[in-house]
Design a protein that fits this description.
- The protein is of the alpha/beta class and 308 residues long.
- It has two domains: 212 residues, Rossmann fold (3-Layer(aba) Sandwich); 74 residues, Orthogonal Bundle (Helicase, Ruva Protein, domain 3).
- The protein is 51% helix and 8% strand.
- The chain is globular, with a radius of gyration of 22 Å.
- The N and C termini lie far apart (70 Å).
- A five-stranded parallel β-sheet has the order 2-1-3-4-5, sandwiched between helices.
Amino acid sequence: MKAISFSKLSTEQRNPRTLDLDRLSALEFVRRVNREDAQVLRAVEAAAPQIARAIEQIAQALRRGGRLFFFGAGTSGRLGVIEAAECPPTFGTPASLIQAVMAGGRSAVFRSKEGAEDSERDGRAAVNRLVRRHDVVVGIAASGVTPFVRAALSAAKRRGARTVLVTCHVGPGNRGAAETVIGLKSGPEILTGSTRLKAGTACKMVLNMLTTGAMVQLGKVYQNWMVDLQPKSQKLVARGQRLIQTLGGVSAAEAQKLFKQAGRRVKIAVAMARMGLDVAQARQALQNADGFLGPLLDETKTRARRRR
């Protein structure tokens, strides 16, 4: 990899609107940061077509048995870890389906290993160890030039995986091996070079969209309900039972009963309640609908109207 001219990166520029940062009162500081953060929304909105394209690529890969990997270093890597960790309880996905790879390994999640981001070898090795054809690798790099991430994307492309780069440095030469580049013009940071700020916020917003959007396309959501949640806490158990009660049109006691019969799977319990099916029949009906609850409930409504 050729030498990086860091001084030319947009993420390394001084912000002319925060030159007096060290002289602001606490309230003035908060208001200044808030005004700067407003740019993040516009930056993400401007990248909507690329974000949508990445969502479609991820959903297509997961349908074919592929997996999603987030590769990053520092703040970017930690954002990937957060996103991957939240998917199983929210969407009922196995931990292997969406994974995060952090430069410097697991310990770097909790304690910074700044030099780890420069290791191209580690990026390539992680891809060669984990990634297969039909997977998707999303590289997260605020600067767009992180060697660990760029090497991972190159190795992933060679293995036949789809590649996406999420970056806040929008300029020539930052595509690398990325098939899709999500470039976020969040602008210079309030604290020069501290990309855990606006850049981190922008990247987090995009990662939220990538996972949630892909899960919607895979039938993990009905309307705006997380019907494939994993009820592994009291809060999620209560939420799951409320979903069954609301969507199934049954009492709280009946919802609790169906919840247990369905093996704590909300979609199966809702199908049982609305369609009068047993567990096996409900599971088969959902399988026939590719996991989407909506068509089953729509069919039930249509039958009810016909009977009237």
